[in-house]
Predict the 3D structure of the following.
Amino acid sequence: MVCQTVLTKRLQLAHPIIQAPMAGGATTPDLVAAVCEAGALGFIGAAYLQPAQILEASQAVRTRTARPFGINLFAPLPEPDPPANPRPALERLAPFHAELGLPEPTLPASTTSKFSEQLAAALESGASVFSFTFGVLPEGAIRAIRARGMFLIGTATTVEEARDLEAAGVDAVVAQGSEAGAHRGTFAADFDAAMVGTIALVPQVVDAVRVPVIASGGIMDGRGIAAALALGASAAQLGTAFLTCDEAGVPEAHKAAILSAREHETRVTRAFSGRPARGIINRFMVEVDRADAPETILPYPLQNALTRPLRNAAAKQGRAEFLSLWAGQGLRLARRQAARDLIARLADETDAVMRRLAMPD
């Protein structure tokens, strides 16, 4: 590949391509290993895994590839206050539960973070790269990660957040544009104010920090990767493009929804998790995420735990209208293929664009 950067050299990659660390089951060991074997960087999205599951997934990746891989956790967040009146949220979900043959919804018993235990497992995972989102890691966690010699990446949605991450000691920053699918990484600004597009955000972050920048948000093909590199990024991180790979662990109904949706059919919602996240518009999103009924959505992660039984049942029944169909705005460019073929296509497309730029007609 003609595109070698400071990150490809540092992380021993053939291509400046990173598979986004999507939590919730999408990043199977087969997907992560296939991405790594193809010369890109695969990530285990471990934020919702128990420590034993983190070790199991990591071992499964290590048995499939000897190449470097990454692991991702959410930065620990303050525990939300228990809802004064959870009844509206429970009543809103009750008809959906009945439709899927589930018992009446109940408040989750506990949403206490297991970050310390997860971190301990991640440190034993054998991963070469550790990334995080939703904030800045505690100093003790950063020291422990550095002691293992892991490359550390944080996620920013504004220049201010990127500077905060650099000051905390990260080795690189993901600049997450507003086009990105799934949860927003915003932590130092209002969510609405931090909805800055990738093409505007990346060069401003590049100018503001000295560490390498990874572009993320709406990037689906080699044209997007080449554009990110032209804006000063050292790599591009893609999520939605990998969700329709054969090895991705999302339900078939989710893959089908991505392949049939269009760029105007996503929006940012709090309906599924209580935290803003971009997904394909469906019935659950429309009926729950209403401006006139904010009390029907609990804060993150309570809402996420509350809707999990519904989402799990919907996945088994193939009911896309109740799934959190996370996807970015570039979803019209999604293709169904093996991960190795996706990486090969992305590399060829990027090379072609970069050569055209270097040798214009």
